Q: What sequence folds into this?
């Protein structure tokens, strides 16, 4: 331990990019208390959920893991423009069973209308209104038990949405909720238009983890998605038999250009060969697509007892190029694929089809 | 060097959160070639700009630092729904002198209308149309030489926008462009409604740097903003004399809840006391406000020869609480403050006022 401490301190001196500090690197292992690597220290954070513990979760409620919340006289979900005093959240959201999230507000409105029809709800669904109309940070639509929410682009944007969504579902006393991110992505070594169901999200170094900065510490979180749900979704897609669908690792990056090895950004300091070497290494590590939200989505859902899946269509094969050049019509059809798959899944879950 | 290498390797074995790899930590120093800390190695990246080199920049064009761009037959700015073959970028944007960016699309539309009036342009400005209407990722409006663009929330979201904006300005051959982020933030130890002009962006560990992952390496970038521009803006605010304005450090985080020490997220593993200790430490390090975009904004603008400023109003004092509880009317007035300040600055630059 002394040797480790001294190695840490010596590293810190000459790697300004690190500045580790005391107790900086912490790990949250599934099913064990959080411990800090470096200086072993138990955090006040409760044990994270067991793998597949969700299926044995006795009450099915969404967990918030924050002892301070109960002390708040009112909880304002600022980025949704909703609150516990201004809105009757249990009556608005108590019946939610499926939450579908995606980057683009327009796409999520389209999805809500599509689900309205697929579920055979009254009316044509074109009058569905944005529940978050008081803000332009996110859009939210409800079609029966299905909530559709936009989350913008990137980890920080989806993370704000997830904090407020998880609190919303908690305040609403929603039970047995399944959450699915339906998005777009870049593929690696697979045909454009292929739908990838994520088994685990990995970072830019192909590590199956998400690093969350909490105060001045880095906590490492589990990024596994729900295995049974992923397999169930793959079966649904095989039944549709309309487009290729696979299960694979998804790489989640903080950046679309330099961070994904693109040669067409405003900044690029690497060669074509270095780019290919990196993407081939990703392929070898099991990565089949790249996007920008899956890791924090997996980590937060895992911690809060939400059965979660990530289902993204690939708009291009990054081994063939960087620019998205397909026609608008082709891209629009690709983007419908995860929606079709999820609609089939939800209808089956609700016994509206076989 | 051998000792350092062995310390790195031993660290890597027992700190799964690090996985440094060879050549992982790189530094880009202002005015010197990029070097890797750990294994000294010159990257193919060109030297970054000197401090204040912008003022001596001879042609005033926006730099892209990507040798591959010239080889593209067409550059599709996907998230703007613009392109070099489909749009005449020089005639659309060649006269741009000021770019103002902010998170919310509605706020940036309001700002464009406001600038339309402030600049005395023809018409009432209410018919200004979204140049990026073909996509809902970003919104863009033009009022004479002023471009207003929304960037969503968080580093990844603004970074995509900046890559495409910098390429757009490059293709358009715009010259002598000043770019200003006008946003909202949480204050530390200052009165809500105070406008903070950033001198330097720091990360969650109070380090004046931005870490960019490029392929499997971490490159550290300079996050200084343009000092003369900041001072100029402060003088403008003193002339308005309508609201408190200061120059200070801005902390830029990847997360709004745990990453900013909030006690009201879905997840919180720290005590009230630990939160205060962290925020006090930030205050002691010169941090006066916290937001989620300034570091990558400063780093990218610095590298590409854009004179850049960050001007954010504070919506609350984080030492007093975490929830944004002010009335809609008060918040709306606060959000107008950076806009008023920038309008004054632009009018002065264009000699429309003294």
A:
């Amino acid at each position: 331990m002394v040797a480790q401490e001294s190695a840490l301190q010596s590293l810190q001196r000459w790697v300004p990019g690190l500045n580790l500090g005391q107790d900086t690197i912490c790990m949250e292992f599934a099913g064990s208390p959080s411990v800090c690597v470096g200086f072993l220290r138990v955090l006040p954070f409760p044990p994270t959920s067991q793998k597949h513990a969700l299926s044995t979760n006795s009450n099915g409620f969404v967990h918030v893991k924050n002892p301070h919340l109960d002390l708040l006289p009112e909880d304002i979900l600022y980025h949704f423009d909703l609150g516990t005093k201004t809105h009757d959240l249990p009556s608005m959201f108590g019946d939610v069973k499926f939450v579908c999230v995606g980057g683009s507000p327009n796409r999520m409105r389209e999805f809500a209308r599509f689900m309205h029809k697929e579920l055979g709800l009254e009316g044509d669904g074109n009058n569905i209104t944005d529940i978050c109309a008081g803000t332009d940070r996110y859009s939210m639509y409800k079609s029966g038990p299905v909530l559709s929410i936009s989350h913008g682009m990137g980890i920080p944007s989806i993370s704000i949405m997830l904090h407020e969504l998880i609190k919303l579902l908690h305040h609403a006393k929603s039970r047995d909720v399944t959450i699915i991110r339906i998005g777009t992505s870049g593929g690696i070594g697979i045909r454009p238009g292929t739908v990838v169901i994520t088994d685990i999200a990995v970072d830019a170094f192909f590590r199956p983890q998400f690093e969350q900065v909490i105060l001045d510490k880095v906590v490492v979180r589990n990024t596994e998605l729900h295995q049974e749900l992923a397999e169930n979704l793959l079966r649904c897609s095989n039944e549709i038999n309309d487009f290729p669908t696979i299960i694979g690792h998804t790489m989640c990056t903080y950046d679309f250009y330099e961070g994904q090895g693109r040669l067409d950004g405003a900044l690029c300091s690497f060669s074509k060969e270095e780019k290919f070497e990196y993407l081939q290494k990703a392929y070898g590590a099991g990565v089949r697509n790249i996007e920008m939200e899956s890791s924090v989505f997996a980590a937060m859902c895992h911690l809060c007892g939400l059965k979660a899946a990530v289902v993204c269509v690939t708009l291009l094969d990054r081994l063939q190029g960087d620019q998205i050049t397909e026609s608008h019509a082709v891209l629009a059809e690709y983007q419908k694929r995860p929606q079709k798959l999820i609609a089939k899944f939800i209808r089956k879950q609700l016994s509206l089809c076989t």
In short: Residues 328-349 of chain A form the longest helix (22 residues). The helical segments of chain A are 2-14, 89-93, 105-118, 155-171, 227-240, 272-284, 294-303, 328-349. The domain at 53-349 of chain A is CATH 3.40.50.1580 (Rossmann fold).
